Every structure is written in structure tokens, then in C-alpha cells.
Structure prediction request, 534 residues.
Amino acid sequence: MLDLFQKLGHKTLGRFAALGRSTYMLFGALVNVPNFKKGTPLLIRQLYMVGSQSLLIIMVSGLFIGMVLALQGYTVLVGYGAEDSLGPLVALSLLRELGPVVTALLFAGRAGSALTAEIGLMKATEQLSSLEMMAIDPLKRIIAPRFWAGFISMPLLAVIFSAVAIIGAHLVGVDWLGVDTGSFWSIMQSQVSFQQDILNGIIKSFVFAIVVTWIALYKGYDCVPTSEGISKATTETVVHSSLAVLGFDFILTAVMFTS
Amino acid sequence: MNIVMESDLSQSIVEVKDVSFSRGDRSIYKNMSFSVPKGKITAIMGPSGIGKTTMLRLIGGQLKPDSGDILFEGGSIPNMSRKELYEARTKMSMLFQSGALFTDMSVFDNIAFPIREHTELSEDLIRLVVLMKLQAVGLRGAKDLMPSELSGGMARRAALARAIALDPELIMYDEPFAGQDPISMGVLVKLIKSLNEVLGLSSLIVTHDVNEVMSIADHVIIIADQGVIGCGTPDEMRNHESPLVQQFLKGLSDGPVPFHFPAQTYADELLGEKA
Prediction:
């Protein structure tokens, strides 16, 4: 019994220590005077690696999720003769929930794991140490541009995801199943509020961006620098950030959409 | 007293004073002291796992000693502010065992990297400096290759070129000869020696390749049992009376450092008796 408490205490302390180390890392990376001349090329490179490279998977997933959503929605709605409401159904579920959440999950798998593995390998091959010995702070040089790249690109990806998904829904709902295109768009327009739906979705996406990128960077930076340690860190990135995204999504939804 | 201090400073670039360091519960150094003379090649030798690399990280300020002091050009590394430490690090450089070249840039860009980061030189000038450094290590022809295309010995030479890119005053080598074939080993030995002479820098080599390093070192420090067990010129070390030093230098399999990892007696274990 005592043993159990001891283990529990040890685990809890470990968690808090990790939280402290990760906060320290993030602050070390972000709290400084930005150097635009040197920082901009680094940021652009990371925006390409983290953002542009994720475009394909985001767009393809968005298209299919939109098509499936329209198909499922139509079969239910048509039973009530309410298939004209397909537009707002699809748009609201995408803008409020699916867009930010699915983008964050895909981002964790596609870009988050890559960030962890890259930084973990840099640590294992002493590249981070060698930066330090060259009097260059790896937090500013390696961590900061990657964090900002994730922070900027994920909301953009979420917007693209939702847009492509709505096009997919239009393809299935209007072009295939024969919902009236006028009511598809006009009811969507009247039902979707910019502030309540679009803005809140984007805010969600910014929160997820911070969470996922932070976890990915920390796991890489703090990993045990062996092949086993890196593989464990990469897995943990995907698992922890997916869970964190779903948890935060619940909290944010509760705050934003209950009145 | 002051005069003695000053003459000490002019002679040694690094001074390690009464340093103790432990990792977790394991004590690595206990009250260790030694100094690294300026402008000379100093070798730190000792069996594997004795914490030689840790020593370099202590000097580089990546780790902090539990007690004691480390002076670099008279400034106390453990007590420096972050800014001062980074300032001091621009005057030292370290050659890592793996080379630690940045895998996402070419050899040329790797060597240009510290110059671009720390100076405002124009690209034309940087090109000249990089070519000079590459010429010094014989890799001018490999400037456009990526690190993954280099052999182990070439990667270490390229890393050496990067280490001298900013003309440091102290260069620390972490196991520069480990895993090298005889030819690239000979090349590296010659390079370290000639860089030391030509650039007038101080070299600190951590290694257990006794013969190679004894041939070029001016000063040898042997570490074992959490402290310095002998130091002096290579000749003095060869005639050192300590059996531990002799065992290490001659590579004898048994002696003060036992061949067997501590265990219960062989007979007991074979007969299945619990310790």
C-alpha cells in the first residue's frame, strides 16, 4: 500500500517536473528580442516543412470528410424532408468541431511526429550540444522557429480543411444527390455566424496549435538520445497531443457554445 | 600572492580547481584539480566510462560542478551569467565524437554557419574564410557534399574545420581518434599537431588512444578513480611509478583496474549458491 503511494507520488512529481521543464523550454525559446533578419528565413523554411508539406494530407482528408458528412447527413435529413438544411449541418459541424480537431490530429501525426524525431535526432547526434558550444542558443535557433511555424500554419490548415470539406459536401450533396444549390448556400449563409462559429473555430485551432507544437518540441528536446528513446518520444507526441487536443476541445466547446 | 596568480593565468588557459561532480547517486569526480597550459597540446586520458567527456562539458559550461571552480582565461565558468558564458564560448570550440555536422546543410554551409551567426562578414569574405579552413583540413574538394556523403574520417575533419572557423583560443577534442582507420587517424594526429602550431591555439584532447596522443601531447593528465592519478610530460608519464598509470599506458588486461566486473566468486556462482 505504502509502495503504491510512493509510486503515485514519484509519478506525480515526475509529471510536474516535466511540465516545469517544458514551460522553461518554451519561455527560453519565445521570450527574447526577435531578430527578423536572421529569424525570417528560418521561419519560412519551417513554415514550408511544417505547413506546406502538410497541405496534401489536410486537403485530401478534408475532401473525404466533407463528402462522407454530406452523404450521412443527407440520408438522415431526407427522411424528414429537410435535405435543404444539409448546407448548415455540414458547415456548422466542420467550422465548430471537425475542422480544428481533425486538422490538429492530422497535424500531430504528420508534422508533430516529424518535429519530435528531428529534434530528438539532433540531440542524439550532438547537434544541439554543438550549437550550444558555438554560443548559439538551440532554443532560439531550433525551437522558436518551429513553434511559430506550427502556431501560424495550423489555423490556416484548419481553414483550408473546412473549405475543402464544404466543397466535398457540395460535390456529394448538390452535384450527386440533388440538393438545391441555392438553398445549400443560402441557408448555410444565414445559419452560420461569423463570430460564434468561424471565429471560435479559429480560436480553437490556435489553442490546438500551441498544444500540439509545444508537446512535439518538448518531447524531442527532452527525449533520451537513443534510437529507443526517440521512437518512444515520437509515439508519445502523437498520443499525448491527440489526447490533449480532445480534452481541450471539450473544455473550449463547453466555454464557447453553452450559454 | 597576486603576482603568482597572474603568472599562473598567463600560463594556463583552463584551470580546474577542486571540482566535484556527480550524476544521480554516482560520484564522477571528487575534488579534482588540474590545469591546461596555454598554447600546448594537453591530453586527458583514462579508461572508458570515467567521465572524460563530462569534463569537457564542465569546461564548456554545459554542466555545472557540484562544488569547486573552473576558470577559463581567469573567468569562472560555473559562476558566469548566461551572456558571459556565451561570450566565453565564442573563444572555445569543441569537436564532438560524432562530428555533429548539421545534416541539413552542405559541408560549406556547415563551416560557414558559425561565421554567419557571429559575424557580419559579407558572403564573399565568408567564402574565402571557409575555403581557407577547408584547405587546412584537405577537404576543399568536398565543399559541396552533404555530411551524409562523407566517410567517418572526412566528417571529423569537416567538423574540425568548423571548430576552427572562428579562430578559437581553445579547442577541445572529444575522442578524435575513436573508430578511425590508421590512415585517417594519422591524418588527424598530424592535423591537430599542425593546427596547434600554426594557429597558436591551445588543444585539449580527451582520448584513450594512448600511442597516438602520447606522440603529440606536450602535457598528459591521466584520470581514474574520480580524480587525477598522474600528470606531466609524456616521458614523465612513461616512467611514472603508479601501477595504475602503467597498466593504462601499457594496456595490461589485469592490474589495479581488475579484468572482472565485481561479482561473487566464480565457484559459488557456478554451483548456484545465492550471494
Notes: The interface with chain B takes residues 38, 125-127, 129-130, 132-137 of chain A (CB under 8 Å).
